[in-house]
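Example record used in the benchmark description.
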Amino acid sequence: MPERIVPPEAAGERLDVFLGAHAGSRAAAQKLIDAGRVTVDGAPRAKRRALAAGERVAWEALAPAAAAVPADAPFAVAWEDEHVLVVDKPPGVVVHPARGHAGGTLVQALAGRVAGGEDPERPGVVHRLDRDTSGLLVLARSEPAHAALKAQLAARELQREYLALVQGRPPARQGRIDAPLGRDRRVRTRVSTDTDEPRDAVTHFALFEALPADTLLQVRLETGRTHQIRAHLLAIGHPVAGDPEYGGRGRHGLARQFLHASRLAFAHPVTGAPVEVTSPLPAELAAALERARGEIS
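Model output (structure tokens):
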């Protein structure tokens, strides 16, 4: 098992940054940490852990993944040119390979059409959508385009808007949820505000349509944490309808969360021209919305 002693000049570095210099890349280091293959003085630590001089970082390489034959993943192209691809993703499609999803992902279906970024398993990926969240996401087709779009994302200039049907009625017509999120202390498959690893997370919402027992919200992401919208809306007492993980399972006959990425707007990474793309609600969400409109409160 390879190991390194943290030198004085590396004191204060994040674990994933330090390990990335020895494991090939920061992305490779994060995969090792997430897989539980990394210890600091014999104990597993979070990737954001600040290291101290003299600590011993040890890691075990991941076994080579078996070659997978990627299955086709359905998608529709909403907008494209030689630099950028905007995809309208249906529910059930995973964006890139991850634990438990070696094949059948969107980036595999787009092989040869997207590029950019340091992780070869995530070519062109600028941001993500949960497997069962539908709608728009933008991917790069070159390294310069990827870098420019990621810079817009980091500067919070890439606008991502969603439609979300939630249970109940928020107390205000619009609001801002500023609540750090991380892996839940008790339910490890969830993200929540009850966490030992909080990261800044900000979500904006506005009332789009008031229904008898639900509310259709227009939601805008300022940050982009895993499950951010779902966790934030649950935190204010209004879980997303149909969400099997965050409290709305089966509502209005839904088999998945009523969350749809309906609008993307950004500056073109090469020309700087404004790009705006919209996507209508998929049929099953439109049908659930009609059922919610007819429900007696």
